[in-house]
Each structure stands twice: as C-alpha cells, then as structure tokens.
Amino acid sequence: MANTLTTASRDFAVPRADSNRANLQTSYCVLGSRSLRTAERLRREFGVKPGDRVGIWLKNRPEYVPALFGILQAGAVCLQDFAPGHVKAADE
After folding, report:
1. What is the dihedral of CA 58, 61, 62, 64, to 10 degrees?
2. What angle do CA 29, 33, 35 make, to 5 degrees?
3. Phi-psi sector, 16: left (phi>0), alpha (psi -120 to 50), beta
4. CA 44, CA 78: separation in Å to the nearest integer?
5. The 3-state secondary structure of the chain, one letter per residue
6. Which of 41, 45, 64, 69 has its Cα between 20 and 30 A from that of 30?
7. Among 3.40.50.720, 1.10.510.10, 3.30.2170.10, 3.40.50.980, what is the CATH number of 2-91?
8. Whether the Cβ atoms of residue 86 and residue 52 lie closer than 8 Å to each other
9. Per residue of the chain (92 residues), what is the pLDDT tens digit?
10. Where are the domains of the chain?
C-alpha cells in the first residue's frame, strides 16, 4: 500500500486528486511529495524505524492522506484512534 501513492505520483503526475471539502484539488505528484517529506521527517526528527507504530489523530481532512502514506513510507504501522469519517466524538 505504501507504494501505491508513489506509483500514482509517477504515472499520473498531472491528473488531480479531488477532495469533497471546499473544492480542494491537488495532484498525485504533490501528494506523493508531501508523503515522502512526512516519512523523512518521521525518520529524522522522531527516529521512526520500520516496524514502529505511529499513532494518528487527525480529522478527515486533506492532510490525512500524506500523513497516512508518510507513516507507511517510513515503514511504520499506522494506528488510528478514529476512522477518518468518525472523528466527531473527538471534537465533543
């Protein structure tokens, strides 16, 4: 799964990835780049190594995709406190 976004960013660099929120559009290339930067930062600043568990607590937002794929590209396992569509409980 970690390689899916890398492949899409290479093969579909121009077509956009749409978000249902605020008509936000971005390219797979941009998502791939942000994911790689996230993976590099996790390794460098937080010492994340393959097999480590990284928790993610993030609303269903466009930033969720590069965060998730960044964790996977760092070789870590993503632990989600809430499924992306069910974060309302955290806001209450």
Report:
1. 20
2. 115
3. beta
4. 18
5. CHHHHHHHHHHCCCCEEECCCCCCEEEHHHHHHHHHHHHHHHHHHHCCCCCCEEEECCCCCCCHHHHHHHHHHCCCEEEECCCCCCCHHHHC
6. 45
7. 3.40.50.980
8. no
9. 667 766 766 666 555 555 555 555 677 888 889 999 999 999 999 999 999 999 888 777 778 889 999 999 999 999 887 555 554 444 44
10. 2-91
Residue identified by tokens 């930062």 is 41
